[in-house]
Recover the amino acids of this structure.
């Protein structure tokens, strides 16, 4: 009943705003591309005859820090665009009256240092939503990203080429973007949209070709029009990425070797849709996961380091139903393998990961704006092996069956900024393991003037067990003002107690009905010492859905600001009422009530253009009327030794005192203990760039954490969420203390020896230790860590890009 009365004015407000605001966006510039017969030489030196008679796109205006001011007379920008039957060509003349101040830091692909750069945004469907951004820095570094509004996904990679040159007048860019790198609708005449931009680092200024009103909507709504491209045909978009890899692994006196070969491929099914497949995948050189000591009720999550699961997946991530680390994750029965051991048996083998056999994805968008995505992956059956020491017999237990993971998406875009989507994820496992199916309907709608946004989701999950089924439901509604200096938004989130998407997605909690609000004030023109600042106030009311119980209320405020000298700082304060936590006890319908708490955090980030810059953060959280408190501190200096050499060191410290934490689940009681916890993390990132295609990279991390429980303060949880003293006996088997230490070091040489092709030589060193010696200090724990066997791994991987058109021309 409460929701009914709250949501009625919510929808009335939305209806009035969406249909009452009909102001149009500013008029867009138009540029007509020129067809040429012979392509220019891509060398960055713009002396080809073809560029002389091609009209220019100029009159750039400021995007940051000001708004719409004409570009400086000392720094004009001119861009020319041509095309052939095979590719788009771009020439950018980026003049500078002080060329010695042009910043030219070296970096590898998709890494943008604090350098001058030029970008070319291309939206081949002119839909205001999905476009590709191509970056080139003044040092010649290339980067490409898929853009969804103002979010850039650098996991996207296509094969294209660009070169730069520098002289006394400024710097210059020459780009070649083959049609094989693009998707576009069929037809004799193309109508695309584009944006051109230039960042001048030493002035801290960014200019764009088509004016962007930062006070309304999203930047992708402000592309200009690119016309004149006619009678081009999508090429046969077929490319192969065959690879070979070999590795030598040494640990504790044992040496093993391995050799792998396989291939990824991309195939353009038609002018708009592409098939990506990985056959016999090899993920041996993916970055290490930043593992930590996890004593909480939820699993630890990690970022995706496998390129196949990050490139071109924007359709599949809609609704947050796809957590790609589920594919190839720890087998379902890994933790149960120990309990399944019979008398006199020992576990000979229990795989910790599941092998991926193959995977493919098909995605694209029709001329009418309908995006279609299909994803499928198959993982191998995994087994634990046991050996009976008495009889000599061996047996196997399936811990992960053969499994198929599937996603299907329909995403209809309209009005160049809005969309509705349908998505379905499905997991089918061999035998009597659980299967899962999740369906979602999503909408994201702007009004005509982009001043208001209304979005929502409705998702249904179904888990199929051998004996029964379980169906769940979740929803979300949000409304936001997206215009002007003063903005606001409200939202509601709901999930019933059987909502579960964790077979292919990720959700930590369910059974909630939460209300959220926020309001903010920001500037779009420099004011006083600030180039930009944003002040925000927010709050939420959290409830349990069944039974209907209030859990907590949160109120807070945050500040973000950047000065004219590019010094950024900010922070936040937050207050929470007492919180009923239904997850820490690990027992259904049980909760512990934590007292009210107040938290504050502040951070700074200095100017990255200087040789030495610093990021630092300090936070403290205090539970009022309780000794429980938490301190967090981080400090990260970065050193730009030269334009080729960069080092970044990071130190993080966390200390938590006297927290009431879960210890054990007994038949009749949930046991809690008073825990102190400390963590220290040291990391170092370094890179030396021989060129923009060759680099030596170092990545190091050491993480230590200890949890120490007071042995005279155990308690049991009561039905009202309070704790009473309990005489809990601790022995070696149930000791809750923990001392956790991990060391990872990666040293790699990377060489991009041809477009789309690379060689990586990687040395990896890792050590891991976990025990009960929580009384050890940091350096004592590190000393213990080095008593453990270290793993040394040396691997070489070579990937070569083959394009069908190149192969066909040779044949």
């Amino acid at each position: 009943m409460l929701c009914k009365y709250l949501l009625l004015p919510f929808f009335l407000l939305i209806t009035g705003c969406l249909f009452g605001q009909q102001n149009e966006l500013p008029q867009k510039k138009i540029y007509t591309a020129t067809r040429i017969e012979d392509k220019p030489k891509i060398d960055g030196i713009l002396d080809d005859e073809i560029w002389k008679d091609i009209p220019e796109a100029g009159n750039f205006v400021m995007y940051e820090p000001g708004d719409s001011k004409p570009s400086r007379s000392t720094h004009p920008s001119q861009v020319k665009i041509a095309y052939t039957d095979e590719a788009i060509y771009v020439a950018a003349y980026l003049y500078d009256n002080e060329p010695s101040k042009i910043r030219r830091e070296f970096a590898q692909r998709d890494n943008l240092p604090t350098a001058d750069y030029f970008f070319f945004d291309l939206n081949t469907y002119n839909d205001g939503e999905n476009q590709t951004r191509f970056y080139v820095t003044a040092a010649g570094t290339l980067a490409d990203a898929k853009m969804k509004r103002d979010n850039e996904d650098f996991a996207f990679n296509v094969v294209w080429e660009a070169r730069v040159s520098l002289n006394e007048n400024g710097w210059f860019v020459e780009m070649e973007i083959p049609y094989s790198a693009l998707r576009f609708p069929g037809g004799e005449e193309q109508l695309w949209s584009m944006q051109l931009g230039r960042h001048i680092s030493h002035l801290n200024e960014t200019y764009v070709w088509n004016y962007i009103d930062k006070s309304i909507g999203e930047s992708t709504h402000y592309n200009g029009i690119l016309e004149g491209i006619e009678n081009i045909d999508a090429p046969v978009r077929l490319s192969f990425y065959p690879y070979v890899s070999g590795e030598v692994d040494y640990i504790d006196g044992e040496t093993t070797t391995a050799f792998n070969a396989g291939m990824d491929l991309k195939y353009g099914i038609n002018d708009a849709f592409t098939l990506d497949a990985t056959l016999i995948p090899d993920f041996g050189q993916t970055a290490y996961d930043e593992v930590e000591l996890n004593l909480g009720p939820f699993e630890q999550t990690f970022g995706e380091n496998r390129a196949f699961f990050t490139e071109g997946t924007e359709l599949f991530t809609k609704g947050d139903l796809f957590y790609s680390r589920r594919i190839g994750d720890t087998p379902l029965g890994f933790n149960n393998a120990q309990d399944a051991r019979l008398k006199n048996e020992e576990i000979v083998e229990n795989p910790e990961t599941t092998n991926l056999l193959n995977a493919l994805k098909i995605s694209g968008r029709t001329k009418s704006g309908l995006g279609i995505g299909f994803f499928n992956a198959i993982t191998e059956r995994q087994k634990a092996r046991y050996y009976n020491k008495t009889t000599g017999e061996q047996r196997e237990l399936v811990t992960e069956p053969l499994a198929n993971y599937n996603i299907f998406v329909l995403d209809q875009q309209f009005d160049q900024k809005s969309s509705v989507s349908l998505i379905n994820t499905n997991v089918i496992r061999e035998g009597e393991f659980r299967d899962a199916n999740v369906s979602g309907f999503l909408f994201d709608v702007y009004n005509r003037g982009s001043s208001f946004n209304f979005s929502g989701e409705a998702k249904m999950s179904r888990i199929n067990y051998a004996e029964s089924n379980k169906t769940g439901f979740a929803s979300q509604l949000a409304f936001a003002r997206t215009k002007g200096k003063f903005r606001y938004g409200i939202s509601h989130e709901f999930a019933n107690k059987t909502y579960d998407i964790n077979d292919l997605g990720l959700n930590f909690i369910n059974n909630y009905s939460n209300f959220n609000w926020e309001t903010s004030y920001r500037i779009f023109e420099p004011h006083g010492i600030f180039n930009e600042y944003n002040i925000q106030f927010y709050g939420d009311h959290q409830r349990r859905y069944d039974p209907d119980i209030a859990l907590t209320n949160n109120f807070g405020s945050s500040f973000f600001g950047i000065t004219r000298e590019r010094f950024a700082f900010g922070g936040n304060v937050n207050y929470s009422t007492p919180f009923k936590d239904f997850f820490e006890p690990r027992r259904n319908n049980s909760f512990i009530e934590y007292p009210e708490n107040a938290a504050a955090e502040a951070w700074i980030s200095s100017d990255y253009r200087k040789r030495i810059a610093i990021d630092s953060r300090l936070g403290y959280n205090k539970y009022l009327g309780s000794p429980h408190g938490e301190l967090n501190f981080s400090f990260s200096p970065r050193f730009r030794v030269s334009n080729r050499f960069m080092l970044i060191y990071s130190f993080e410290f966390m200390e938590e005192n006297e927290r009431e934490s879960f210890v054990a689940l007994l038949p009749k009681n949930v046991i809690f203990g008073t825990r102190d916890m400390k963590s220290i993390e040291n990391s170092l990132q370094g890179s030396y760039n021989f060129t923009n295609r060759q680099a030596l990279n170092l990545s190091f991390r050491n993480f230590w954490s200890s949890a120490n429980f007071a042995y005279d303060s155990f308690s049991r949880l009561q039905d009202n969420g309070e704790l009473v003293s309990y005489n809990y006996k601790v022995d070696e088997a149930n000791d809750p203390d923990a001392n956790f230490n991990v060391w990872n070091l990666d040293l790699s040489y990377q060489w991009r020896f041809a477009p789309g092709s690379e060689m990586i030589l990687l040395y990896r060193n890792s050590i891991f230790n976990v025990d009960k010696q929580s009384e050890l200090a940091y350096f004592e724990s590190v000393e213990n860590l080095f008593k453990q066997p270290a793993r040394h791994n040396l691997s070489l991987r070579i990937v070569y890009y083959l394009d069908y058109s190149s192969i066909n021309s040779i044949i």
